[in-house]
Amino acid sequence: MCKGSASLALKIAFTVALSLAGSALAAGQTADQAWLKYTQLKNPPNVPMNVRSLGRGTVEQSAVVELRRGLLSLSGKPGFDGGPNFILLGTVEEMRSRNGQSSVPTLEPDEFLIASGKPDLVRELDIIGGSERGVLYGVFALLRNLAQGADTSKLNVRERPAMAIRWVDEWDNADGSIERGYAGRSIFFDGGRVREDLAPVAEYARLMASVGINGCNVNNVNNAAPLLTSEMIGGLARVADMMRPWGVRLALSVDIASPQKIGGLATYDPADPAVKAWWAAKVNEIYALIPDFAGFTVKADSEGQPGPASFGRTPADAANTLAVALEPHGGVVLYRAFVYNHHADWRDPKADRARAAYDIFHPLDGKFASNVIVQTKEGPIDFQAREPVSPLFGGLTQTSQAMKVQITQKYTRQQRHLVYLAPMWKQVLDFDMRTNGSATPVREIVAGTAFHRTTGGMVGVAGIGQDAWLGSPLALANLYAFGRLAWDPTLSAKQIADEWTRQTISTDPAVVKTVSKMLMQSWPTYESYTGPLGMQTLTDITGSHYGPNIESSENNGWGQWHRADHEGVGMDRSVATGTGFAGQYPPEVAKLYESVATTPDELLLFFHHVPYTHKLHSGKSVIQHIYDSHYDGAAQASQLVGEWDALKGRIDARLYEDMRARLEYQAGHAIVWRDAIVQYFLKLSGIPDERGRAGNYPGRLEAENARLTGYKVIDVNPWEDASGGKAVTCGESKCIAEWTYSGAAGRFDVAVEYFDLPGGAAKFVFAVNGPAANANASWAADAVLPSRQPHGDNSTRHIARGVALKPGDVIRIEGTPDGLDVAALDYIEVQPAR
Ligand code: GCW
Fold this sequence. Notes:
By secondary structure, the chain is of the alpha/beta class.
């Protein structure tokens, strides 16, 4: 009888697992597009296959279903064995009442313990959680180990998260678009409402839970008011329902002006009693439908968002008004320290956006309610390729804090370039702020332990969308790493890369080694060809934030200045002669950054303005470093393609092809970046490259110098985005550019640099002395890239490989415009065949 009921239970669980998988499949977006693949292992996992649980709660049941699903998939078995051994799931309380004893240790709510049960005739493995969420985290930890082929015969793991707040932020708008999202449309919203089909939300929650993420703030901090209408809250309750089984709580960004914008009040002054009452009522309305609602995120007095400053109130006044409303329900306020004047005076040598957060928030330390957490971006500007740590982390000792990092790759090339961000985040987390002259690593400050706060944490701007979560498959390593680091910031970036690769791509050690190496070198590579020496960003900051546009950072109020002129580059942020920003750090760190002599090379231009001839610690001049680093970075980007190639046949073929095309694109775009920055600084400084590369492009034939039929020469803006500042565009049905080859005879790879413009897919044909040179010689400009005009945003490289050429041959490019895409060309480059 016992056996019969067990097998019935099994059957039910199995059906649940299958139908879960089925509904996710129907939605087309599943967690196994990410790391929850549970690929069948060569050696079946060395744990009991039967799963039992003591509790019936929703989260614990998710843990049961997940474990069964994982075990079946990893072992490749069609069903459970029905044998006596089992894994038992339960909370501390459940375990204690089962055993009738208190030998089960007390655990914090999110803590778990995986231990062998008392050896008996049967083998029992216990997964015990401080709460149901702890049980779920224990299950995911076990599966994570199993999926990596770890030896689990003597498993004894006890873990608890370092930080209480482990949230992702989505910047989704009610219309379904996503601010700074690069993976398609929202999984939450469409057409001004919550989507009907929320199956992907449940899958996303599974992914989040698997790495310990416990909160998801679903809407954009800009334009948040419409989200608080009663109709919206009803829809949001459905979102919360999808995430709840996975222990993920819903949070919302709110507009501080909501009482006026949607509440009909005459003011939104946070000190006004009617405003306070409005927030209290709104919060009650939310909790009536979403009892485990996590809280609010607030961006105020920033980048055009309304804020307390309009009423002479402080961020603490505004935060506390919300905090009082949320407190009875256990909700928190994440108040963003990203407050600065984006109309700053660029002629004022003392003006400095980097100072703003500390200047505004440090004086308020101790004035925030206990359920307010000040949320600060990892660096003082805005997720650049490299920034120093925000000094505010050391400046708030009586306020709970959270560090915000960006998973979605706004300034790190929008998921089109491979940039594994964990090494960058680690550097910030491990930075020793030396508050009060003793060791205070930032990871301990944000966790709350350094200054004895009750809460704190990390928030990652995720930007997930309908396109395979983050668009590029390898970009998902960043989402994974975020969760893992918020759980345990002492993990190394490499360890996380290995873990992710084994679960996502393959456990084959050669594959793990290669992918992990590629991930680990991707950020330094990226930094080298976009923003070395702490130059922050040289991208188009008023437009796409994608291609190079060096002067777009200057002469405007946004304050991302690098102050390059004919003599030198960099922003003086010293106390002695500059903006004083360096003085915002605790004394030991302030001293380090105050002087050129002690500032590390990698941040030199963030803190100091130096002549191009200034010698770095490395012994190189600044200008030579700028040249070398861009050439090295572009070469490394092209090596990434070679490294990936070595995986052909060892990994999933679709993944191989997908990622290969992305890496090849990146290698080409790294050259666009290299050439833009190098030619710009060559012109500005007038100092030649010691190694003769800058301004010299062997084998390059400019389109503006070709024999043109139909094509017209144009100036590209900014000039550095095209070779020689010029390109050709076609205003007719077909245009031709021809060059007579005069180099040595041989086989070559011919790179064609063209502009892949939106609004059509122009066609190109590459030919030598007649028809198309080879099969690789005609292509469509059909990528989706920013900017309507030829620009570094859309400058793209196509390589025709193995082309035979001899002196006198006529190389021809034929461009056929389509719609708004005018088949624009920059140059061709004849290189020795690879
Ligand atoms: O740098 C800016 C981005 C905005 C973003 C803002 C922020 C959501 O350009 O898109 O707004 O950062 O962090 O609030």
